[in-house]
Amino acid sequence: MGNNGKKSVDGGGLVIFEDVSQAIQGEKVLRAGGYEVKLIAPPPKYRMGCDLGVAINLVEKTGIERLLKEKDVHFMNILSTTEGAAELVSVVKTTDYGKWLMIKAGNMKLAFEKATGIIVNTSGGGCPDIPYLHAEMVDKKLIDAPKPSELGYTLCALMLDRAYEEALTVWNGGN
Amino acid sequence: MLLIAGTVPQKDMPLIAGPVKREGDQLVAGGRAFSRIQGTGAMISAALTATEYMGVEPPHVAVAGDIGKGDGTRLMYRYLTENIASLKPDVVTLHYCQPFMNLLTLFVKEVEKMEKPPILIADAGAMYAAKAAGLAQKFDVFTPDPSEIAFLADPAATHPAYIANHLFGSEIEDVPELIAAAYRNNSAASVLVVKGARDYIAKNGSIVATVEEPDIPVLEAIGGTGDTITGLTSAFVFAGVDPVEAGILAARSNRMGGKMADPTPATRVSQIIDVFPAVFKQYLCEWSGICAVPSKGDK
């Protein structure tokens, strides 16, 4: 895997662990999974557990969280280290197009047919996994489609997951 | 040369580079085919329709497979950084990729060494990285959608998923203030083409044009209808159109394409791209004075 520079992790994310051994294990697992990460001493305000954390590119949070869980590496939290921007967008908007409904969460959207629950469109992109998710989700029923958070790797996928969950809730409540 | 760089949603696809052409529902470059249906493929496809119509050189592409793990993004940036000086493109458009700030920074440093730097256009992941790395002002054009202009307006945000909620909740009337904030924060390119219910084109802090007709609300539900604006803007800039005028032409063409395609939320963006040649034939000369004799793109 390519690495064009030594300072490869400047993506504003930090995984916090309860103890040092878990942090070291987490770093190994993530490196083996192809992620560019490094062990760091977290700034004091982010210290919840031990004095060792793993710096990550925050955009890769979804895939990193899934990999750590798959490998049974226990972590306390994944934080944004950017001041004032630690909370994900929580606003979800709905647009009614008659036969279709569009749900938008953050910069991601999903449209489905009301009568059938079939997903007819999702966002074109934003992050590289979104076109991939588009191909995997469109033309499938909401209940049969893969969850974006289980198939995607990025924060965009996490936002699409919110739109998907909201669509599922609307679909279940309305039918 | 118009060089378009991005990723395509195919696992294990190596980096491919070279001039692009269309074969059916595929794009082909460097001997490999990739989909024109979504993402960077749709953006390239839109640009290709415009270059074909205007009779200018087709886009060169540098794309690699990436489904969100960042592997293709790294290949893309490595290629760009190592080859930009020899390629000497006139325009470079960066599109879907993981927003790796360090790799974008290395690329921009190489661009700055060039005797004649290309016009730089960015959308999506490349735009996120440019803003987050403090490199926005190195770019000539950004093409954000409404949530992305809120991201550019939020000085603390490093990704559109982390925009302050009060900014994301903004309505169309608030977009001018978001544009102003993006420029104040040095988070905007020289020109912004803000794609939305009303398209705004801004330059150096001031809104210089809006486009809102024809109004086709359903376009918002169709994934990729912002990518087409980025692709068209890139092609028009490459053809020598001023970036502001290129943004206006792209916005108008996209809306008219939407109208001609008579879409529903289930329409695919490729169906809209397919009517662009008809849009150009009917309107481009009237709108812009670009009255080139149509070449292969006119069918």
User: Per DSSP, what share of the residues of chain A sits in E-state strands of 2 or more residues?
Assistant: 15-25%
- Global outline of chain B: globular
Query: What is the percent of helical residues of chain A?
Result: 25-40%
Number of separate strands of chain A:
8
- Estimated share of beta-strand residues of chain B: 15-25%
Q: Which regions of chain B have little confidence, pLDDT < 50, spanning 5+ residues?
A: 294-299
Report the count of strand segments of chain B: 12
Structurally, the number of domains of chain B stands at: 1
Q: What is the approximate shape of chain A? A: elongated
CATH architecture of the largest domain in chain A: Alpha-Beta Complex
Integer average pLDDT of chain B: 92
CATH class of chain B: Alpha Beta
The arrangement of helices and strands of chain A along the chain is: EHEEHEEEEEHHH
Query: Which assembly state applies to the chains in this document?
Result: heterodimer
Report, as a whole number of angstroms, the end-to-end distance of chain B: 25 Å
Mean pLDDT of chain A: 84
Which structural class matches the secondary elements of chain A?
A: alpha+beta
- Per the CATH scheme, the topology name of the largest domain in chain A is Sufe protein. Chain: A
CATH architecture of chain B: 3-Layer(aba) Sandwich
Provide the CATH top-level class of the largest domain in chain A.
Alpha Beta
